Amino acid sequence: MDAHLARMLTSARQCRCCGATFAQLLSLSCDRPDVCSDDLVVQDNSAVLEERGDVLTEDFCRYGKLRFVRAVLALPLADSRGAEFLLGTWASLNEDDFDAYLDLFDMRETESMGSRPAWLANAIPPESGAPVACMLHMRPEGEYPELQVSESNNALARLQQTGVQLEELLELLYAYGHDLPSLVYDS
Ligand SMILES: [Zn+2]
Prior knowledge:
Order of helices and strands: HEHEEEEHEEEHHH
Protein name: DUF2199 domain-containing protein
Mean pLDDT: 92
Structural class: alpha+beta
Number of domains: 1
Number of strands: 8
Organism: Phaeobacter gallaeciensis
Bound molecules: zinc ion
Oligomer: single chain
InterPro entries: DUF2199
Largest sheet: 8 strands, mixed
Pfam families: DUF2199 (PF09965)
């Protein structure tokens, strides 16, 4: 493993903005799809069945004609023996797939859907532009489905295939507002 990366993964230094260690920052989470209004409050999952119209829950979002489910986008870290940067993000599905997913979710049988086309519904990094075409791979036993970028010329697709270099990872964390000097350098 890259020595600098190994040191950072076990470092107790904390980000000055949020108090998280570097290892903790390896999972970031978006609480809603980018298009979803900040006015919508995150509710329990039952609200997606009980309410009509726009709704945001922990794992589902219905917004106008759009349908979203919570998903994970994993970026392997280069030279790390399997460490990943995990983004808790949102996938946009067509309505039929969304309904099927919703039906299977409580029974923890979404894996039977296999893989479905989806759009990454959060710009990664923030402000990076148009939605990205993906495949959404269902996972067993209540695990979040995983997004795999399918646009081969997209920067995220390259990062998924070849792994993220430490410098690129630091740039990503910086784009999410974290205070890198407090994590990277001894004070
Ligand atoms: Zn921070």
